[in-house]
Design a protein that fits this description.
The complex is a heterotrimer of chains A (315), B (374) and C (377).
Chain A lengths: L7 E10 L2 E11 L4 E5 L6 H8 L7 E6 L2 E2 L4 H5 L2 E4 L11 H11 L4 H14 L15 H13 L5 E5 L7 H16 L3 E6 L2 H4 L4 E6 L2 E6 L1 H5 L5 E6 L3 H9 L4 E7 L2 E6 L2 H14 L6 E5 L3 H17 L1
Chain B lengths: L1 H17 L2 H22 L5 E7 L4 H12 L3 E7 L2 H9 L5 E5 L3 H6 L6 E7 L3 H27 L9 E8 L6 H32 L1 H7 L4 H30 L8 H25 L3 H17 L12 H8 L2 H15 L3 H30 L1
Parallel strand pairs in B: 1-2, 1-3
Antiparallel strand pairs in B: 3-4
Chain C lengths: L2 H17 L1 H23 L5 E7 L4 H11 L4 E7 L2 H9 L5 E5 L3 H6 L4 E8 L3 H29 L11 E7 L6 H13 L1 H17 L1 H6 L5 H31 L7 H25 L3 H18 L12 H8 L2 H15 L3 H25 L6
Parallel strand pairs in C: 1-2, 1-3
Antiparallel strand pairs in C: 3-4
Chain lengths: 315, 374, 377
Amino acid sequence: MQIEQPIIQVSGLSRLYKEVRAVSDLNFVVQPGDLFGLVGPDGAGKTTTLRLLAGLLSISEGEASVAGMDLKSESEGVKSRIGYMAQEFSLYAELSVVENLRFFADIYDVPVGEMDQRMERLLGFANLLGFKDRRADKLSGGMQKKLALACCLIHEPKILLLDEPTTGVDPISRREFWNILNQLHLAGTTILVSTPYMDEADRCSKIGLMYQGEMIMHASPREIRQQIDGEIVILLTDNWKKAREIVSNFPGVQEVQTYGEALHIIVDDADKRIKQFERNLKKANITHQGLRSAPARMEEAFISLMHKMEERDVV
Amino acid sequence: MLRRIWALTTKEFIHMRNDWWLPAFMLFGGVLELMLVGWATSRPITNLPLMVLDMDQSATSRQVVTAFENTGTFMIEEYVSDFEQIESALQDGKITAAVIFPKGFEAELLANGGEPILPVLINGAESIPGREAQGSIEGVIRSLGEQVVIEQIGINPEQFAGFDLSLRVWYNQSLSEAYYSLPAELALMLEFTVLLFAALAFSREKELGTLEQLLVMPFSSLEIIIGKAIPVMIVGFVDFVLMLSMTVLFFKVPIRGSLALLLVLAIGYLLVELGKGMVISVIARTQHQAFLIVMLIGMADFMFTGYAAPVEAMPQLLQWFAKLVPAHHWLAIVRGIMLKGVGLEVLWPNLLALFILGTVIITFSLRYVRRALN
Amino acid sequence: MSFRHLLAVTRKEMNHIVRDPYTLVLVLLSPTILLLVFAYALTVDISHVPVAILDQDRTQTSQAFVQQIMAGDDLDLYGYVDSIDEIEDLLARSKVKAVVTIGPGFSDNLYALKGISLQINIDGTEPESGGYAVEHISLRATEFVDDLLADQIRAIGIDFESFDPIDLRVRAWFNPSLKPRNDLIPGLISMVLGIPAMLVALTIAHEREHGTLEQLLVTPIKRTELLVGKMIPYLLVGLVNVIFIPALARVLFKVPFNGNFVLFFILSAVFMAAILSMGIVLGVFMKTQSAALALSFLMIFFPGFFLTGIFFPIVSMPDIMRMESLFMPGTHYAIITRGVFLNGVGLEVLWPYTVFLAILAFSFTAIAAIFFKKRLA
């Protein structure tokens, strides 16, 4: 019974700051054991959504429940069942690693007998054993994030809400952090994590795409990639502006996306179109450093969805 | 350079708009304090509870009690019938004074050569109302005595003056307390608010780590200092003008000297205190610390201005120290211009002292802050 | 309320103070240092008032008179002047606080029993020193006349004593010479113990500014646990000062301490709870530390001077202010400190004030807890 019940349930959820809708009419569910990624650019409403679910903001409209508890009436009860990690570093800078952990252990009423053992395990897990007595503000950015994660795991919550845990962190630490998340995921913890990075989205079991305060889609990564009903052609060229003009008007081209000097072109049949492009570019005297087909990624799918939404808004 | 300073100053003002409590306090806190001081010092002490134990029950004793009441200083708390009640009321701090008319008070007073005793007890645990009560009672009894003397020996003691003192109070004929206290409070509030504001300006950014952001931008340390100083100066100057208008318009304290000179010197003085505030902000690591240091320095300065305590009565060492406190000279300037109506011909030693102190403080603070920034 | 949560918050808050020795010293000592500064100002008795003389009589008698009034430390003879213009100049330059003018015929009038006439010019911008000089000079002048002419006066049938037909015997209890220091120093303790309250007002804003509040708000900690936990370290800071202050007041400034110290300590703790919870209320409403600081100056520091009856008697205030002063913890504590220091009374007299302080502490904490939302916005 318990298992079938979604662990997070959101319907019609909105939050207004004065007149501005930071998030609007969110509807989604998270099943127990999901690693749910909230993906979207800055200002999409990810932080607001996570804060709403953590009980940090009051709900303007709609309903939300976490761990079977209604956030409107039982937000305090929710707090002992979740671990929440803020986007900014929000531990006590002048306390040491161990002191920070102990503080949260006390506040979350971790049984005294288990405390030392749990702290030791978490520190090992986060690779912080060698830094026990270092002041939190003297840790590197990546270590701070891991300490923050350790602090919100101290009471072994069933649900983790993580707000851009890897923003501003070097790539190695990022990978390390995600390995930790995967371990937690495998151990059965439900994780709701926000990220602006599409490559991270691919590591999630479920994804909610957010844009301008709305959730434009939530599904598995595979389903989202399938939103693109075509194939991807990547064109690398110095003269991408002109190249873009040329390829946009081809029959069979659904959409052209620009990534720096690379054009990602969504077409009906990659092999067939590549040859046509090749010819036409030569004719226009445009040299290129590469023209190949590639599998569709989350990013293209997301941008394509975004474009569709913008077009809808214009109409 | 001017454009960058302008950018910084604008940023500061935007910050003030978002976090307006402190600037508002700086602008109006001083005015409010002056109002409280002006109000409190202009109000007479009244309604002091007086207890009466009248064992004489005579016309004279009643006359004396009425005279006490008529001074306005007292309010009769209670007529009591035994001394223990007075004792316990004093013990409990319920009354300020108690007067005891012994039996036969009137009779002895009227008898020739008699000198009746009139015991008065004062609650010394509150010396300010206590002194007021004492003065008031002494006044009543003195005039009663004169009346008796005139009736008995036909001489008015005032006619025969052992000596006749004529008092001339310069610059403040009516001995108004507002004249005395408001220019001083004005001078000191300006010091305190500017010091606090300047000290918090840097320490806030230092504590929150936003100073680092400024430092990586293409600002020179001097530009940062000036950019931060301008808003403090503007707000400080407006504060001064507000307080000055309040003192003059509301409490009728005159400006007998040159207003223009006062305003110009105020700007100079603001610079000196700004320098001090900046040094504090560099020493302090957090706003917490900056506040406490300002508190200690501000209050210590307050002691050495001569307003809170007479400097000439202090040990020589402290008297020298007092000369090193800018507020000491600033107070002399404010009083000189406002009350004495003098100008630079008289105030130049204070101005010179302020100038030298200012140069030292500002040079030091520029160096110190720049080094801390770099 | 969970004791463990309380202790965790207290320990963390304590760390802010203790970790940095600089902060520790400042926080711990500033109330005492501030009180010492106030106390010193109150105990500097006026003396060495610079006075100039304009002697238009130029006789031996006037010389003797000047000597008599200048004897001792009270007045310092700045010098003689020759004209009214010089008087003005000296006063304008603040070189002297008073100028005594001895008119021509001073000694002739004196011996003719016409009395002496004397003009004293004082600087009205600093009337305290000038006033003191006047008082001192009149006293010495009376003595002078008395010493010189007592016999002659009595010879014409006037008895000085008969000018005072009532023997007024004023006795001040608890503070026989009505020295302001004896009651103002105990009274000012309530002021300086306001500093920890101003600091506690900063701590919530500190967490807001540093973003640590966000992490704290998602924990199951109760509002009262957080608020009370934050107050405890500052309560201890206050109590450390409560130990220092009476000792220093007694040793350095000769302020008597007639009551029971243990009682004083306990009542001070009640006061600290009240004033700290007032600080917490302010902290709850303010977003930044500088705003909290500004508000606590307005609500704690200034009213501490004007509304608590230390300097301005509460009975003389208009009704509205008397009401307000009731809600200032300092008002009740000033009565307690004076009662313990000077009157030497105990709980039998002080219990109503203690109860009121406890009620204030409770209500302020309740108000803070009600308005402190465990949300960000």
